[in-house]
Amino acid sequence: MELTMINNAVNVAKFRLAKHKELGAKSTLSIHEVAQLMDLVTFGPSLPQVNKTSLFFNYQMN
Fold this sequence. Notes:
Layout: H1 2-23, H2 31-43, H3 47-52
C-alpha cells in the first residue's frame, strides 16, 4: 500500500512538472515548488510525508 502511495505521489509530481514545462512563463508554480517536485521525482517522498496521507482523506473518526 505504501508503494502505491509513493508511486502516486511521484506520478502527480511528474504530471505537475510536465504541465509547468508546457505552460512555460505562464505557469503559476514558483521556483521553490518546482524544486520540491523535482526532488520528489528524483528522491521519492520521505516516509512521514507518505504516512501523513490518509486513505480516507478528510474522514474524521468520532
